[in-house]
């Protein structure tokens, strides 16, 4: 029986990946969590966890090497999906050292544990499109050979993790593949991310918990949107369709939208009448504002294509927050 280790199983992506693997494989799934990790995103799996029905939790922290070695030994993985991270660029400006320690040094600690205790595992290290930073229009769409120009401590930390993964593949023969995923979202998306914040605010306005005012940051930034459920299918394909250790792949959507267009789409789905208000706290000191990928390398290798429409993703995200607001009468904006 194959065994998979998912670091960050309690996050949006990790929880959806667990769902996908349960539905499409017979693998045993080990999810790495910190003792203080909220379990909201995997509450639907608690019964399986309690009954040891293919889902198991192992406790570890990317800041503590001994705990990572213990988790890797317990999981004895054939496949590793390294998703755990401090994943919010805006927060990284306030906590740069913690972000770099978690994302860059934490990845090195994990790779050391895997090198020693799971040397044959196929390993996916999840990098980020943010490593490309501020890209000029003449370099669009962004290909894998685009130079790094990280525009936040988060992006710096991901660039370091990305390069470390490539180094461990080359230096030690580890079976590591790197993804640079562009914007991906859907149900369970944290409210610190722009489209999820908009959805949460709209759900609270609909419920009468907020005045009809949407607070926002930069509305002119350009993004492509991939549904998280398409993203985790891509991650599975990355490690199971003729995997090529040492390779790096862009993964993302094919249609570009401004943040303003995303907000207008969500307002149209909601139907509420509201005004917009700039919130200085939501503005980054520097913004990676042209995030449009060239995904031809990954698509040619795996045959992956997005299946869920942008409109469906936005509808499902808003519905997710409507349900959260219904369940929890008091939420902070």
Describe this structure in words.
The longest helix has 22 residues, at 96-117. Strands 3-2-1-4-5-6-11 form a 7-stranded parallel β-sheet, with helices on both faces. Strands 12-9-14 form a 3-stranded mixed β-sheet. Strands 7-10 form a two-stranded parallel sheet. The chain folds into 2 domains: 3-185 and 227-251, NAD(P)-binding Rossmann-like Domain (Rossmann fold, 3-Layer(aba) Sandwich); 194-223 and 255-290 and 308-327, UDP-galactose 4-epimerase, domain 1 (Alpha-Beta Complex). It has helices at 12-24, 46-50, 65-75, 89-94, 96-117, 153-172, 194-206, 228-240, 259-270, 296-302, 310-327; strands spanning 3-7, 28-33, 55-59, 79-82, 122-126, 175-181, 184-185, 213-216, 222-224, 226-227, 248-251, 256-258, 275-278, 290-291. The protein is 42% helix and 17% strand. It is globular, with a radius of gyration of 19 Å. It has 333 residues and is an alpha/beta fold.
């Amino acid at each position: 029986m194959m065994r998979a280790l998912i670091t960050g199983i309690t996050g949006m992506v990790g929880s959806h990946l667990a769902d996908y693997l349960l539905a499409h494989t017979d693998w045993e799934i080990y999810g790495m969590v910190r003792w203080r990790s909220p379990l909201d995103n995997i509450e639907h799996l608690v019964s399986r966890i309690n009954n040891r029905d293919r889902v198991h939790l192992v406790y570890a922290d990317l800041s503590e090497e001994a705990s990572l070695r213990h988790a890797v030994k317990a999981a004895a993985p054939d496949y590793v999906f390294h998703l755990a991270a401090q994943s919010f660029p805006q927060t990284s400006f306030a906590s740069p050292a913690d972000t770099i320690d978690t994302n860059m040094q934490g990845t090195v600690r994990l790779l050391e544990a895997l090198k020693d205790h799971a040397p044959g595992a196929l390993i996916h290290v999840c990098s980020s499109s943010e490593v490309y930073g501020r890209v000029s229009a003449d370099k669009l769409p962004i290909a894998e050979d685009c130079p790094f120009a990280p525009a936040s401590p988060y992006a710096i930390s991901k660039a370091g993790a990305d390069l470390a993964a490539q180094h461990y593949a080359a230096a030690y023969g580890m079976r590591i593949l790197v993804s640079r995923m562009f914007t991906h979202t859907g149900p369970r998306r944290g409210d610190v991310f722009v489209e999820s914040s908009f959805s949460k605010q709209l759900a609270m306005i609909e419920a009468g918990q907020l005045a009809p005012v949407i607070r926002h940051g930069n509305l002119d930034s350009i993004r492509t949107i991939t549904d998280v459920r398409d993203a985790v299918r891509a991650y599975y394909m990355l490690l199971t369709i003729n995997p090529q250790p040492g390779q790096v792949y862009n993964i993302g959507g094919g249609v570009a939208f401004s943040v303003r267009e995303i907000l207008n789409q969500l307002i149209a789905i909601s139907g509420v009448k509201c005004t917009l208000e700039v919130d200085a706290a939501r503005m980054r000191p520097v913004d990676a504002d042209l995030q449009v990928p060239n995904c031809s390398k990954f698509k040619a290798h795996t045959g992956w294509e997005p299946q869920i429409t942008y409109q469906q993703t936005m509808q499902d995200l808003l519905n997710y927050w409507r349900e959260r607001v219904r369940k929890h009468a008091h939420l902070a904006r």
